[in-house]
Amino acid sequence: MTTMDGTAEQRATAAATGASATERFRLDKAVAVDASPERVSRLAREVLEAVHSTIRRHQVTYAEYDALKSWLIQVGADGEWPLFLDVFVEHAVEEVAGATREGSKGTIEGPFYAPGAPEFGAEATLPMRPEEKGTPLTFHGQVKAVDGTPLAGSTIDIWHCDDEGYYAQFAPDIPQWNLRGRITSDATGHFSIYTIQPAPYQIPTDGATGALIRAADWHAWRPAHLHLKVSAPGHQLITTQLYFPGDPHNDDDIAAAVKPELMLAPTPSADGTGIDVEYDFVLDPA
Ligand code: DHB
Ligand code: FE
User: Fold this and answer.
1) For residue 112, what are the domain limits?
2) Least enclosed by CB within 10 Å: which of 66, 122, 167, 226?
3) Series of mean pLDDT values for 10-residue runs along the chain (286 residues)
4) Residue 44 within any structural domain of the chain
5) DSSP result, 170-208
6) Which pTM does this prediction carry?
């Protein structure tokens, strides 16, 4: 098992990253849901009953109960609820949401999406620093409907971390929109994106989530991944991620978000400096 003091140095503190993720969630996602009292009651009761039965089964002590309280308070103080929930809970919500979809598989969004990325045509180089580190990556493919019809003018909204595992807008010292962009497919649904291969990502380890991971002797790694939201008029948007074969954490992703359908098949690029990947997206009707 990889240890907590793995190779990636943590420039971004958990509190700073968590605060950014919390702020982003408040801006974009904090909508009221119209749930009946019966549904709220059933869900809340079942979660609480699961907690009670864990306490009884494991004879939880007052010291442990107080440790839990301090930890919950600290998750909030660090602004880490978006990080914690997206790592440990979102995959089950996504499984339920995607169960009836016929087209491409989705997976979790995670806490680091930012709406409104710069827009490009069907061939685009993602915004990056002049000396952006990392293996050059060409990502091309086609967006189609479930019946195979090419979807012209679809949007491929892509975001990923840099070669050190940091996301623009959530870690300090990275230019806004670095390695983020919205690409529009051409008349045949095709697109080509030039970027760099993202690094495996370690969730921030210096905050409350890291403290839990350490106390439980888990590891903090997600395998390297590209994040995408693919959409077209009249079709369902899919939120997904794509992974690279051979990553040591493809089989034990802390966020449990890897699916076999989301594995890329890279080939060496023609000029020998990087890798090419091809991946097509199939969207269900709305
Ligand atoms: C987290 C980070 C990610 O990049 C991701 O894809 C999923 C979760 C997190 O830190 O919670
Ligand atoms: Fe991510």
Assistant:
1) 14-31+80-283
2) 66
3) 37 75 83 88 98 98 98 95 96 96 97 96 98 97 98 98 94 95 98 97 91 96 97 97 97 97 96 96 97
4) no
5) TSTTS-TTTTEEEEE--TTSEEEEEEEPPPPEE---SSH
6) 0.92
